[in-house]
């Protein structure tokens, strides 16, 4: 069965979304807006909603940024999802947090807490952070190197998982008769001493309902894929062609055996930006209208960011990208830079065409068409075993989520590709992921 | 008007609370339990609910701890309060977080986020942490010294407040016509470089509805009082006699002028542990029943903790405390240790009597009597200007909160001492605290 997530950027995925009358203007500080999105996605039986994050405002040209509100001012994801957890019952809640500027003990607690509040629906999207703006909010004048970031992330995830096992599942017997609340031998001290972290433990919260909250990742670099093969259960990735998506899928899944993992224990969900019309013509027109709303200074700023901060001002907008840009000379996500360069070369785009293309979908694949067209594409990729599902990023929120839920989801359900009711009670159960055993529990002791 | 907060320890304040049939047995991981408490307190027009916290399980003798579940395994407060925010409308939500093992940028974000989710009801109880168990979860083999902790805390709070001012209140004009979402000159970079922290900013969330979430503190040492005089808006303190409470109140409020602050901008709310009966006899019996439930190994463990880890095993339980214990030779809260020693001396208590007394109220003042008796005591302290209100810690939850809300609150209301409806929309408004101006906003510019 296909998996569906919703990646809900505040006013929507399209860079000009806030200019559309279908968007919630104050999305970044409107809690009820997110509750509405979550309820719509839950009614449509989405597996999860997914919140991106960074620990800084986007840096750049302030005049351009003032016209581009996405990720300048918005909710912190774990608190927002805890609020949403109280208002929903089934949908998974995946929040991003960085391993570069947090402590493993604090992250382990917060996600365990979210998992208890939501009765087993929490997920953690592990990121290593990718920009200097974040570093400078945490006492550093320079960002960790790519290598150090991944080394830290790997150790960090290991510590967090170890902490989640501090208490055995049946630790709390709560027996008023004997006066014993927990079994003393059910509490375990991690005593981790590693390269980047020393964490004794135990964690001061009961083992999460899911055992471990679900781990998501988005890194598509070699280091990122290796980390994902070892630790991730959901991978979010940008894929523009079926061939590349299939290659990525096969590559990543084949790496898992090295870590003793089965391929079905990781769900690969590329981003999908649907632009929907009741006819193809209407869909195209809808897309054209959104593209026409893009302010040029915003498009240029977005492109500069995607290229690791390369300043494009002064270059001819109707000429090609300067040849001096490469994926190697930036300390941002190499795979992101490379995918932008690939796109420009593949389609021979000018700077203006490139930023218009990117601004519309923020680096993700756009499909423009009828609900049947979109379901056809999704089905083709799914049947080709190039994906396990999709992370849907509606262009304008809440409007385009409503349309997707009302049109594409029923079409997928009609084809038997997507659930009509939730299979389980937890995110892990709905995704078909195994509940991890506690490393400290002796076989046969339970 | 008197202020009332609820300090809700998972199963209740009494150390044997979980053994009472009136407690919620799985309180530490039962979200709906907390929602119920919050709703009860809100219906009774409490100003706030307050969650204690530590970043470690309590250390100590595991056999004893297994009979004493308080603060071994429980929710992380900011996520829990975000969930509760979604289910309530008026009550203030104050969560504890330490300045020793967090980063100011992360704390500023989380509390700002909670303030937005709750539409202006967030508060931060600033603690510096007091035990080695926490240090060892964060890469340190020893705890920061008392002096360093307070120096860090002072700088930390300053940075957080500065970050909350990153955006001016009217920054977001969201003007679709002009294409401008925020005024570029309304975004401010803190550029803090201090002894313990370097934080550039700006914060990536809009200024909180309250300007700044309300700052609470509980330190009663000289350093703690000085920090409170400078930065706190609520002070939680343990006071056992009217005279000492009055002296503390006058001392703390008199320190505020040094920082250009008015006395009414800080609310002093001692802890209050009411044991209520419809007659005095019934209240006494209720208390005796709870005391009888205290397991000896638990009482001894509690006392040892309050004395900075001094191991009391082996001493005669029916003799006095050993004379070698002093407040100076521990790196825990000196004022806590001293208050325990004072209590033992004042009433000439044996070890057993002392732990029974402490175990019942966890260091806070207990009043045993009818609703009228309790209201009398509260009124006397309030009219003597020894307190601005109380932080009520029901012995057993949810049972004793229900009783307090149904009996003592109406009595206070009848006397005109406590509100019958909320005065404002935010915690700050209900407490009568001024909304802080943004340090970056130029006079007359708004």
From TrEMBL, chains A, B:
Keywords, ordered alphabetically: Flavoprotein, FMN, Monooxygenase, Oxidoreductase
Tagged with keyword Oxidoreductase: yes
Q: Which domain of life is it from?
A: Bacteria
Q: Where does FMN bind?
A: 53, 96, 146, 150, 220-221
Looking at the record, the residues that make up the Luciferase-like domain are 22-383
Presence of the UniProt keyword Acyltransferase in the record: no
The molecular function GO annotations come to: monooxygenase activity; oxidoreductase activity, acting on paired donors, with incorporation or reduction of molecular oxygen
Homology family: Belongs to the NtaA/SnaA/DszA monooxygenase family.
Q: What is this protein called?
A: Xenobiotic compound monooxygenase, DszA family, A subunit
Task: Give the organism the record lists.
Answer: Paraburkholderia phymatum (strain DSM 17167 / CIP 108236 / LMG 21445 / STM815) (Burkholderia phymatum)
């Amino acid at each position: 069965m296909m998996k569906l997530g919703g990646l809900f950027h505040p006013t929507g995925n399209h860079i000009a979304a806030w200019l559309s009358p279908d968007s919630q203007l104050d999305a970044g500080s409107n809690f009820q807006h997110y509750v509405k999105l979550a309820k719509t996605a839950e009614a449509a039986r989405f597996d999860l909603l997914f919140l991106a994050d960074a620990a800084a405002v986007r840096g750049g040209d302030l005049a351009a940024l003032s016209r581009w509100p996405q990720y300048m001012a918005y909710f912190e994801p774990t608190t927002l999802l805890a609020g949403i957890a109280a208002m929903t019952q089934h949908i998974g809640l995946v929040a991003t947090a960085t391993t570069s500027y947090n402590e493993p003990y604090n992250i382990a607690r917060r996600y365990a807490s979210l998992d208890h509040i939501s009765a087993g629906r929490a997920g953690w999207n592990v990121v290593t952070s990718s920009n200097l703006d974040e570093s400078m909010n945490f006492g550093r004048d320079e960002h960790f190197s790519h290598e150090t970031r991944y080394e830290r992330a790997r150790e960090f995830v290991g510590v967090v998982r170890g902490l989640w096992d501090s208490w055995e599942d049946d630790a709390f017997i709560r027996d008023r008769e004997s006066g014993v609340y927990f079994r003393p031998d059910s509490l375990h001290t991690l005593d981790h001493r590693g390269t980047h972290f020393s964490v004794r433990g135990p964690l001061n919260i009961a083992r999460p309902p899911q055992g471990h909250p679900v781990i998501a990742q988005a890194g598509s670099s070699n280091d990122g894929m290796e980390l994902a093969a070892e630790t991730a259960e959901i991978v979010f990735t940008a894929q523009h062609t079926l061939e590349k998506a299939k290659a990525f899928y096969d590559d990543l899944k084949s790496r898992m055996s090295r870590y003793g993992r089965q391929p079905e224990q990781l769900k690969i969900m590329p981003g999908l930006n649907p632009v929907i019309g009741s006819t193809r013509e209407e869909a195209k027109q809808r897309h054209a209208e959104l593209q026409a709303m893009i302010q040029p200074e915003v498009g240029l700023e977005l492109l500069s960011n995607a290229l690791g901060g390369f300043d494009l001002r002064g270059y001819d907008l109707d000429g090609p990208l300067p040849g001096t840009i490469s994926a190697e000379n930036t300390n941002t996500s190499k795979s992101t830079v490379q995918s932008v360069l690939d796109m420009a070369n593949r389609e021979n785009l000018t700077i203006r065409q490139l930023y218009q293309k990117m601004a519309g979908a923020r680096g993700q694949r756009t499909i423009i068409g009828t609900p049947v067209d979109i379901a056809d594409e999704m089905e083709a990729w799914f049947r080709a075993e190039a994906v396990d599902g999709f992370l849907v990023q509606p262009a304008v929120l809440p409007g385009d989520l409503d349309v997707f839920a009302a049109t594409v989801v029923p079409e997928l359900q009609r084809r038997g590709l997507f659930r009509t009711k939730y299979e389980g009670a937890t995110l892990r159960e709905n995704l078909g992921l195994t509940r991890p055993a506690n490393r400290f529990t002796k076989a046969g002791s339970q």
